[in-house]
Amino acid sequence: MLTIHAETRQDQGTSASRRLRLVNKFPAIVYGGNTKPIAIELDQQMIMHTKNQESFYSDILTLIINGQRITVKVWAIQRHPFKSKLTHIDFLRVSS
Q1: For residue 93, which of 5, 33, 67, 75 is within the disulfide window of CB 3.0 to 4.6 Å?
Q2: What CATH number matches the domain at 3-93, 3.65.10.10, 2.30.30.40, 2.40.240.10, 2.60.40.1730?
């Protein structure tokens, strides 16, 4: 099972997402289940290395957000049209 470290993000919206991308991070969200969605930010370099593994797309992943472990699956990925960068990921909670 892959483990990904993430941080919660306070600022949301287009401008905040652009500022994240300038420092080599990008926004993501964790939703599903009976709890509220969590807006997070991920490191571009770490995810670019992790996404090369086939299990990133098909297996259950563990997100560590502020010390809390959440099991998720990748639900949707948005990529930049011509750069080899990700712009957003949706994670769906998996009940364990």
Answers
A1: 33
A2: 2.40.240.10
